[in-house]
Here is the input.
Amino acid sequence: MAVNGGAVERNILGADEIRRALVRISHEILERNGGVEGLALVGIQTRGVWLAKRIAGFIRQFEGVDVPVGALDVGLYRDDFAARSRPLMHTSIPAGVQGLRVVLVDDVLYTGRTIRAAMDALNDFGRPSEIQLASLVDRGHRELPIRPDYVGKNVPTSRDESVQVYMSEIDGIDEITLLREGD
Here is the structure.
């Protein structure tokens, strides 16, 4: 444990554990979908996109086939958009999603509101035959009836804790930490 500006920080997963979780998720996606035919991965900006690319890389290693990967910004679809001020990211969906089995990929699943927004946004690009959800961390506290199909790690948390995912592509390190505000 480390103290970070008044918050107590505890490491949940390191680089090796993250890699193993993503390898397992990749295998589970292949098993459930019977391969890659008609499959697309769509990462939710920002870290979900990098996770989707990593999963696609593992699938390429296992199957020798490239799975289309897209990026989805859900900012305009959130029900708390007025309360959030952040620049809009980039959305790029691979050749539409009409009739595809789409795996939405996100780093942390919490209330489910981001996923609801992602499903609304995704439907603007066509009607997938199925939407599945992969999350690196499920921390609980759902406000909507949404559950992941693939989970890297379940991390029970309290509402005064937060989960921070660090990725080498963005942060220079692969690590997941749990932050709790100091008393």
